[in-house]
Structure formats: structure tokens, C-alpha cells
Input
Amino acid sequence: MKLVTLDRDGTINVDSDEFIKSPEEWVPLPGALEAIARLNHAGWHVAIASNQSGLGRGLFDLAALNAMHAKMNKLLAGHGGRIDAIFFCPHTPDDQCSCRKPLPGLFEQIGERFGVELKGVPVVGDTLRDIQAGYAVGCEPHLVLTGKGAGWRGRPLPETFPPGTGVHDDLAAFAEHLISRGAESR
Output
């Protein structure tokens, strides 16, 4: 199974330090939905692993989160794409859970759900913690320079990033990289 795991806020949609709290605030990044559709059309299954501490902080409820994901899925369907599964951590940093990135709990759930070993599965995010969580279970790390990742544009990554972290301008550039790499290996 060809599987890729994406972060949500800052990778697929615009991020906010004030949290994304409603479907109206959920706005896709340019080219992100098309990139997911391209991955799907190339045979990739797409899962999302996302910290959603706004739930635990009481900034929005599960109905609002589901409405955001319904909007994302509807817009994505318009491009011929889909998300196969969404995994999220509702906890705040004070909750000391195992599913809040940078801990690997969400990725362990993804591996169980799909029945796959995650070694070599690409993980894409806009922050170090996104990449650390996937890397902890053997995922192949990729940083996009959107969202919080924009701060790394034009700068070398520090040694705190896993070795071999791929760097891409955005999700579309990552998708192009992954699809062309697959074409080369045929």
C-alpha cells in the first residue's frame, strides 16, 4: 500500500496562531487540494495526523471540527481527490497524552488502522514536531515551507531535524517529488 501522512494546519490549509475554529476559517493553501488529488490519482492513500488542542482548550467543539473536515473533503472531491482517514489529538500540552505530536501516538494509530508498517512512509508537515512524530515510527521526513515552515525558507535546517529531511516549497512540490520519484523507480 502506498501511504502518505500529512499534517493539516500549515500544510493543507492556512494556519493561525489563534487556531482554526470554524469551517469559515478553514482555507486551503494554494495548490494543496490539487496536490492531494494528484497523489490519489498516482495511487497514494492519504492520512492526516493533526494536533487539535483547540478542542481541549474549549475553542471549538467536535461538531465544528467535523464541519471543517466536511468542507475540506467537499472541496477536495471537486478536484477528484480524497482523504482516506483523519487522526487528531484533542489534548492540550498539559494533558501529557501520547498522541500529541511530537509523540508518535497518532502515527501508531495510523499504522494499526491501515495494517501497515510505517517504516519509509512519507510524513509531511510544516513544523519539527510533525516530522519528529512520524520519524519516531520510521517514517520518511518531509518539511514544507508553508505555515510555520515558511520561517525555514532560504535557511539550512538545524540538526534537531531528522537526518535526510526533504524540504519542499509546498505540498504541490512535495507531491511532484513523490510522484516523479515513483515514476523513476518503474
Strands lie at 3-6, 45-51, 85-89, 122-125, 140-144, 166-168. The chain has six helices and six strands. The mean pLDDT is 96.
